[in-house]
Amino acid sequence: xxxxxxxxxxxxxxxxxxxxxxxxxxxxxxxxxxxxxxxxxxxxxxxxxxxxxxxxxxxxxxxxxxxxxxxxxxxxxxxxxxxxxxxxxxxxxxxxxxxxxxxxxxxxxxxxxxxxxxxxxxxxxxxxxxxxxxxxxxxxxxxxxxxxxxxxxxxxxxxxxxxxxxxxxxxxxxxxxxxxxxxxxxxxxxxxxxxxxxxxxxxxxxxxxxxxxxxxxxxxxxxxxxxxxxxxxxxxxxxxxxxxxxxxxxxxxxxxxxxxxxxxxxxxxxxxxxxxxxxxxxxxxxxxxxxxxxxxxxxxxxxxxxxxxxxxxxxxxxxxxxxxxxxxxxxxxxxxxxxxxxxxxxxxxxxxxxxxxxxxxxxxxxxxxxxxxxxxxxxxxxxxxxxxxxxxxxxxxxxxxxxxxxxxxxxxxxxxxxxxxxxxxxxxxxxxxxxxxxxxxxxxxxxxxxxxxxxxxxxxxxxxxxxxxxxxxxxxxxxxxxxxxxxxxxxxxxxxxxxxxxx
Length: 503
Hints:
The protein is α/β, with parallel strands linked by helices. It has 16 helices and 19 strands. The longest helix is centred in the first third of the chain and has 36 residues, at 25-60.
């Protein structure tokens, strides 16, 4: 039977003369067998066309978004109702001019959410809608193991991290500030890092050369250690940080400028880091004129970038200036949402945030890299008993104190070796090194305590052999502790000079 015969048989409008009707049973069975597959193909084509139309209609339907609305704006806090989001979630409020204000959930009061905006709230009207920025939770797949987004932090906003950030300057939201084009978002991570089991951390076993003679010899730093740089304003902490950023032997440098003057950002990049230093650095800038939420986010973002490099097995130097501004930003938020102050105006949440941020740095698990962190701590009126300074001193692995009296006398870097200490030094240095550092510290302290007697001529030589030696070594000790900003003193040179001074 030909194709024309089959088409004519299936078409009821075809003329009877064109239809050939077979008169044998064999022909009847053959016609039935040939018509069955053709009928199935027609039904299949009709269903495929129908499903295609359905898919097109589904694609035209917009996703259903659950929205709340703003019912109150007071100071730094916005109150939203009609939407349920966990604390720490990100959301946004569209404005009438086409822009939007992003905010974060920092608390709740009954069914109402307390939102802290990331920018100015100009343009927000009563009843403005609130939409979530949270990433939709994906279902787990057996072949891929555990679900990729199990924690609330993992379902929150992700920010760019990784090698493509090297040499770039970004703000607390990951947006470029250097005008070098957009940041690649292929590798991202949430702001909240995973807690490392303390028993899984690698111990501090190797020294880190920071290029500053007084620190290398007297306050030896270990790779993965966390130290605080305690200083008042105008004592030279930024210059000392810049020296360590240029001379420290690290694979990657992450700089977090949190709550400082905007002028310092450009100065730190151009004058302190320079082109060579910036090539292996990532700078996160959240200056004082941004919101308190962005200052908090900037510190967490800088830490998240350092954590990513540590996972890659790299040795990271994290410099954060300053930890005090981070605490002040948390104080602004906590007081705005009604948390009562506890110690000198600081709410309890401030002292819970500090260790949570600091403990994310340090050595990773065995086989991973390390994060050696330097945090600057501002002491109001050079008061070392400031609540933030006292809390930071307790959670850090050492502290370097800068003395204003030394700075005023032209002694730079103005490191007070009497009040400074490195808690990991005894584990990573030899006994001979420790004895030499202890002897120099004793001579330095003995001379300072008797300086007034020596100045007025009341001290007679020979009364105290230790003081006699201190007077003899005074110039050599001062020369040893001072260092020019453009001078790099490596570890071995620092130890050799220390041995010559105390010999």
